[in-house]
Amino acid sequence: MSKIDKVTKGNVASTKDCARPPIVTILGHVDHGKTTILDKIRESNVQGCEAGGITQKVSVFTVQIPNGKQITFVDTPGHEAFDLMRSRGGSIADIVLLVVAADDGVKPQTKESIEIINNSDAKPIVVINKVDLPDISVEKVKRDVVNNGLQLEGFGGSIPVIEVSGKTGKGIPELLDMILLVAEVEGVRSDDDMPKGILGKAFVLESVKDKFKGNMSSIALIQGVICQGNWLGYRVDDKFVIEKVKGMITEEGENLCMLDCGCGGKIIGISNLLELGTEVYVLENRDQELLKSLYKSNKESVLEEDVTLEEFFTLNSENSGECLNVVVKSSSEGSLEAIRNSLGKIEEDGYRVNIVDSGVGNIGLRDAELAELSKAILLGFEVGIEPGVVDYAKKKRILVKTYEIIYKLLEEVQEAVSLMSLPTSNEEEIGNATVRTLFTLSDGTLILGSRVEKGYLKKDCKVDIVRNDEIIAESKIKSLRINKDSVNEVKAGFDCGIQLNDSLEIKEGDQIYCYKVVK
C-alpha cells in the first residue's frame, strides 16, 4: 500500500462509485476451525497464540489475493460470551462466512450464527471445514444447515457452499474466488456520497488498552480513506470528540500511513476506549458543528419513545409462541436464584416464562443484543443500566424494565403472561342501519325503529352509534324484532326494531354500525 502523507478531496473522490474490498466476517461454533481457515488464507499462525486455540478477541485485517484484489476479514470470538461482538460483526459485513465442521455438524453457536445471518443484510456463504477427515458426511451437514434456516444451492436455495480444509488448504482458493464473485454480483462499492468536509467513515469493532500504545480501536473503513494526521470525530455518551489520528497499525503490528475504503486496521492513541459499533468519521477540519450535525441526522430516524408492553407484543406477535422470553440481570446470586425460581412457576393457559439468559451485574449492551435476537423482555433487579443501552433499546424497540422490589417484577411478568394468553381478535363490520323512529314500550324499554341499509344486523353483536360521522356511543344488540317476531338477524332492505343493552340518547337519523368478532 503506497504511503500518503495527507489525504485530499481528490483522493476521496477517486474512491467513490468504484469497487472496494468486501468486508467479510466469519461466524460459527467454537472449534469448528474459523481461525485455522483465516491462518491459511494469510499464511500466519495467529491461532497458536490464542488461549486453547480459540479466538479470544476481535481482529480485522486485509489480505492481498494473487489476482491483485483485496478482501478484509473480521475474525470474531467463538464463545457464547461474545454474542454482542459477533452480532456487530454480522451487521457491518458485506459477506458472512458460516463455518461448519464436517465432523461435528450444526451446534448451538451455529444456530445462533444462522439467526444473526438471517437478521443481517450481509450475503452468506456456507463453508464446510475439515473435509480432509475420514468418515464424514458433507451432505448430512448441508441438510442440517438447511433445516436450521439457510437455503443452500442444491436444496432449492441460492446460498453458495464451499468445502475446505483449513489444515491442508484444500478449497481455500475456491473460497476466495467465491467471496470475490459474490462481492461482484452484489455490487460492493463505495458509492455513498459523503457530506462536505467528511473524508471517511468507519465502524469500531473492538477497543483495548495497551500499556505501550495506549487505547487502540480496531476499525473497518466503509467509506472514503483515513490517514495518519487526519482529524477523527466520534461521540462518547453526550460528548463530541475530535482528535488527530496519531498512528495506525495492521493486526500484525506493522505501521500504516493510510487505510483505503473497505480495509481494516487499528487506530492507536485515541483518548477514549470506544464501544463496539461506534461510528467514527474522518474530518477535513476540526469542525464540531459538522460532527454534531452527522449524529443529529442519524438520530432523526431513531424512535425516542420507550417501548410499552402492548407495543412489545405487537412487534413480536409472530415470534412469541407460548413462551414469554426474558433476560434477567440481578444484583446478587441469591436474588437471581429467587427470581428464576419464581418466574419458573408463572403459567396461565399453557403460557409460561422462558429465561433465555440470566446473570449478576448491570444491564449491558450484550444483554440488549441478546434480548433483540431472542425477542425477549430485558429485566433488571437492583441493577443499573450501562451507557449506550437505553439508546440502543429505543432504536431496536427492546423492552427494558428495572425494579427495586421483587414482587413488582413478578407481578408485571404475570401481567405480561396474562396478556399473551388473551385470544387475539379483530372486529369486522357486518352491516349498518338507519334509525327512522323511536318508541317506548310500557315497561320503559326504548326500541329503535330502523331499516338495515347494508349487510345484516345480528343479536348479541357489538354496535357503534354514529351521528354526524362521529361515534357517540357503543353498545350491544339485546334483541331484534321484525313486526312482533323475535329474530337473531335482520338482512339489508328490512325494517326492524332494535333493543340495545344500554340506555343511550339516540336520535332519529343516527347510524348503527354492527360488528362481529373474528378470532
Topology:
Elements: H1 9-15, E1 23-28, H2 34-42, E2 59-64, E3 70-75, H3 83-92, E4 95-101, H4 108-118, E5 123-129, H5 138-147, E6 161-163, H6 172-186, E7 198-210, E8 214-224, E9 226-227, E10 231-236, E11 239-244, E12 247-249, E13 255-256, E14 258-259, E15 264-270, E16 279-283, H7 288-299, H8 309-315, E17 323-330, H9 333-344, E18 347-348, E19 351-360, H10 365-374, E20 377-381, H11 389-396, E21 400-403, H12 406-421, E22 426-440, E23 446-458, E24 462-467, E25 470-482, E26 485-487, E27 489-491, E28 495-500, E29 511-518
Provide a descriptive summary of the structure in words.
By secondary structure, the chain is α+β, with helices and mostly antiparallel strands. 24% of the residues lie in helices and 36% in strands. The protein is built from 12 helices and 29 strands. It has an 8-stranded antiparallel β-sheet. It has a 6-stranded mixed β-sheet with strand order 2-3-1-4-5-6, with helices on both faces. A 6-stranded antiparallel β-barrel has the order 22-23-28-25-24-29. The N and C termini lie far apart (65 Å). The model is unreliable at 1-17, 44-56, 78-90 and 299-305 (pLDDT under 50).
Kindly list the characteristics that best describe this protein.
single chain; 519 residues; alpha+beta; eight-stranded antiparallel beta sheet; six-stranded mixed beta sheet; 12 helices; elongated; disordered N terminus
